[in-house]
Design brief:
mainly alpha, disordered N terminus
């Protein structure tokens, strides 16, 4: 039967693909649209949930009183325009550098290059947060008073911001882990982790506000726990998936290689977010 399929046009030698050779598939607009949609929806969902958690925290604080509502609203606005700006804007450096590394031969030979980029991004962003943002938050009460806010309101908001320091540092870590998973095609894991953490944060926020004596300080506590749960779930996703786990880099060897480039992209991303949020 096999001889019947051979004719004068058949090749003398069998055609075999090389190990790294990829067959070009025909372009399909609909297939690409579906693929992009599947990757985009979890990312949009994740970002929306972060804002929803802040909104619910503000609303629950408003049940205590109008003063608490004002402090929480102003505090979250300042938190977003300083701390979240560093976390979200700086983490975009991983979008550029990890995507470029993933498509290069270097990542095939050494998958841990992605983990090294993650470590560099965490080092840069946590350094910027602790050296620049944290001191501003510590003295924010006096700064608000100097800008003309009522002293009682200014110092209450400054105290609120100080208690948000753990949440700010944890958000930096969580945002970097989100990008680390997203660039490797794990958007669904990011969306699921954010959704579960959001449910925990909302329930905990309502419980702390209504049934404890923490009062206004229950909001920073609930928001910090939200960031902790998000970080742990994202770390669990990395550990659970062998393909992602093999890119994890635990060694600090070579950390300084490419660190200035990471700093440049991180600062550029922060500046981009700042121009959008500070208007």
């Amino acid at each position: 039967m096999a001889s019947d399929m051979v004719n004068e046009n058949s090749p003398l030698l069998p055609q075999q693909l090389l190990p790294n050779e990829v067959i070009d598939e025909p372009f399909s607009l609909w297939r690409d649209f579906i693929g992009l949609t599947r990757q985009t929806i979890p990312i949009c969902f994740s970002f929306a949930l972060q804002n929803a958690v802040q909104m619910i925290c503000v609303l629950t604080a408003g049940t205590i009183g109008p003063f608490e509502l004002e402090v929480t609203s102003y505090g979250f606005m300042f938190y977003s325009c300083t701390g979240s700006m560093v976390a979200i804007g700086g983490a975009t450096a991983l979008d550029t550098l990890c995507a470029h590394a993933s498509s290069s031969q270097q990542a095939i030979d050494n998958p841990r290059i992605l983990g090294r980029l993650l470590q560099q991004c965490l080092t840069v962003l946590l350094g910027l947060f602790m050296l620049i943002i944290a001191p501003i938050w510590v003295f924010s009460g006096s700064m608000f008073a100097a800008l003309g806010q009522e002293p009682v309101f200014a110092h209450a908001t400054g105290r609120f911001i100080i208690f948000m320091l753990p949440a700010g540092a944890l958000q930096v870590i969580a945002e970097c882990l989100r990008k680390f998973l997203q660039v490797q095609g794990e958007s669904n894991s990011v969306g699921a982790a954010t959704a579960l953490a959001s449910v925990v944060a909302v329930i905990l926020d309502v419980v702390l506000v209504r049934w404890t004596s923490l009062g206004l300080l229950s909001v920073p506590c609930a928001f910090a726990i939200y960031q902790i749960v998000t970080m742990l779930l994202l770390l669990g996703s990395i550990t659970y998936k062998p393909v992602i786990r093999r890119t994890w880099c635990s060694s600090i060897t070579g950390m300084l290689d490419g660190l200035p480039q990471m700093m440049f992209y991180a600062v550029t991303g922060i500046a981009t977010i700042a121009t959008e949020w500070w208007r």
